[in-house]
Structure formats: C-alpha cells, structure tokens
Recover the amino acids of this structure.
C-alpha cells in the first residue's frame, strides 16, 4: 500500500518540476483586465487546460493582437486563445488549432442612406473602421487591399478602438461607409436604412491554438475532447484544424488580385512562359531561395522595409532594377512567396514605373508552383 501511495506523489512532483506552459489570451474589445469576472473566467480556463494536458499553465494577457503574434513568433507562448486572424497568423509558426467557437462572424461594409457610391477606386468615401488589429478591422483591410485600393481612394479612413464607433459615426453623418459585424450591419440597416455593400467570408469568432512542439498530439486530442463538453468560458466549442483558418489566412495582408500595367498569371501559365525562354525573377529572401526555387529562375532579392500597402513608398525599399532585361519591351515574370508576399507586387510596381511594359506577375508564386507539383531545384 505504501508503494501505491507513492505513485500519485511522484506524479504531482513531476508536474511541479515541469516548466509551466504559457497561454496567451488576446482579449476581445469588450473585455478588460480591470473586470474581475473576465480575469476569473480566464484563470479558471487556464486551470482546465492545465488539468487536461497534465501541466501547469500560466496566463499572459494581450489587448493588441500584434503583440500576441510577436510573442508567439519569439517562442514565448505555447498556446494562444484569440480571434481568427491571430490563429491564422500563428499557423505558420507550428501552432495547431484544437478548438474553435461554433459562433462565427463576418465583416460588412455598410453605406449610409444618402451615399450612392460603393467600395471602389476614387470613391472619395469617408470610411470608419473598427480597431486596426481586431478581426473586423483585419477582414476589412484585407478586402480593401485585395481590390487594389489605397488610402488615397478615400477622403478619410479612420480606425476606432470602440467596435460600435463606425456605425455611430455613420448615423451621425460622419462617415459614408462603416465596417461592422454582419449581424450588427443587418440590425443597423433595418433600423436606419442604408445598405450593405459587401460582406466578407465567415470565420470562427475565437479559437484555441497549441504549439505542437509544446503539447504532444495525444494531449492536444484530450484537450479538445475535454473542453468541448464543458469549459469555464461558457462557450460552445468544436474541434478545429488549420483548414478552418485557411480562408482568413489567405486574406490577411494579401496582395491585390490585379495590378495595372501587369498581367496576373497562374503557375501553369508561368511554366509555359518559362518553357518559351521568358526570364522569371525570384525576389524572395536568400534563405527562401536556398530552400527551394523554380529551375532557371533569376534570383534578385527585394529588400522590403515599406508598409504592405498599395501606396507603399519605394524609397524605403531596395531592388536592383538594373538586373532586369535592358530592353524594356521584353517580357519577364516576377514572383515571390505567394499571395501574402508583397515583394513581387512591389518589384513589379517599381519596374512598371521605371518603364518596363511587358510584365507577368505570378501572384501565387512559389507556394502555388509547389502545390501544382512542378519541378523544384535546391542549392547544394
């Protein structure tokens, strides 16, 4: 009996000695650290997570999504509970989504009753948006960028910390367009008139993602199973995977879908053009190039310091235009690391401004080429 009694003691000792896991919580806009119920709820949630995975869990709160993503990138977080755009961002950092809320949301652009324009170039609209880093702000920015719009297309573009501020400004006549959740937009237009000009794709409201190196697969599965049935957050949770966030991941910081002065091409079209002898320029980083590249591509790295925006400042960046064909009428292809990589967009813009007239922009870049199963070369 004495030997049996020692076993639980050894288990407790082992758990106490193991380094605690850190759970980063990105607070919602209506949550505050000064609110006792909020902190008590998350402390209880952390205890539930720790009990499930068999390790102590300590909490780290964030009011800004950017800092949670940065800490995850720096290796300081083992788990993250937060909005969809955060979960999508850390997916490339070996974080695996395990749970998501069954409640979903989407961003909607709402036009004032007397505004006849749309979300288009040179609309001159006054646009009110939720917080820059919120899920609504992220979805809205992604749609604006994907349409190739810049700040200069609006007479004003203002972000608000308070989620309801854009619609309030719309009602007061302060804005022509405002962004809100699809649910709020529907309620607002029913009560005040106006119209919804665009609604984004639906995404999970919040989710829990775990670093695979910190929590083994069996523990992740147990975690998902136990918290689905009951959790202190009083949320209806369902199992999650990377596929649930693939849509928003492709929207975040995405490049425009078109570029005046260049032709957007697919991987198959790029392959055919390369076969005809048209030069293809790889503007990714040296590290990315060495890991794998398109056979025959010409490596000319784009050193990026400017903002990932349509109206970026080329003066902040460095790119060797003198490496391009001397004949500015000669065709060429630009590519980088997919739709979220801005380097090929920016290098193409710089080349167009410098006078090159026959540019193919391979927007999907290396990821699309690889996914298509085309040949890849590597540096020895």
């Amino acid at each position: 009996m004495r030997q049996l009694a020692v076993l639980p003691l050894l288990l407790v000792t082992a758990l106490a000695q193991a380094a605690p896991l850190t759970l980063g919580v990105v607070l919602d806009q209506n949550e505050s650290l000064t609110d006792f119920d909020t902190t008590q709820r998350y402390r209880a949630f952390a205890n539930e997570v720790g009990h499930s995975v068999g390790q102590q869990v300590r909490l780290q709160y964030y009011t800004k999504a950017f800092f949670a993503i940065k800490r995850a990138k720096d290796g300081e977080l083992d788990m993250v509970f937060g909005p969809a755009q955060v979960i999508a961002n850390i997916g490339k950092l070996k974080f695996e989504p395990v749970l998501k809320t069954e409640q979903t949301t989407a961003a909607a652009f709402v036009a004032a009753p007397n505004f006849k324009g749309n979300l288009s170039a040179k609309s001159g609209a006054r646009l009110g948006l939720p917080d820059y880093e919120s899920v609504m702000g992220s979805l809205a920015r992604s749609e604006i960028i994907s349409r190739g719009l810049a700040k200069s297309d609006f007479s004003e573009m203002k972000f608000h910390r308070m989620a309801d501020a854009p619609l309030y400004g719309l009602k007061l006549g302060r804005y022509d367009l405002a962004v809100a959740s699809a649910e709020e937009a529907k309620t607002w237009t029913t009560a005040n008139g106006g119209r919804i000009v665009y609604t984004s794709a639906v995404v999970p409201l919040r989710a829990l993602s775990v670093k695979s190196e910190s929590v083994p697969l069996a523990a992740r599965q147990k975690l998902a199973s136990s918290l689905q049935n009951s959790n202190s957050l009083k949320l209806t949770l369902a199992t999650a995977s990377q596929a649930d966030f693939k849509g928003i991941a492709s929207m975040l910081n995405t490049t425009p879908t078109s570029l005046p002065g260049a032709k957007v091409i697919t991987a198959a079209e790029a392959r055919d053009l390369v076969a005809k002898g048209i030069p293809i320029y790889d503007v990714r980083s040296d590290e990315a190039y060495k890991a794998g590249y398109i056979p025959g591509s010409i490596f000319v790295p784009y050193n990026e310091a400017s903002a990932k925006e349509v109206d970026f400042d080329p003066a902040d960046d460095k790119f060797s235009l003198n490496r391009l064909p001397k004949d500015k009428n000669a065709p060429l292809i630009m590519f980088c690391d997919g739709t979220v990589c801005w380097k090929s967009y920016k290098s193409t813009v710089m080349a167009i401004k410098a006078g090159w007239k026959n540019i193919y922009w391979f927007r999907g870049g290396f990821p699309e080429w690889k996914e298509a199963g085309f040949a890849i070369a590597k540096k020895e």
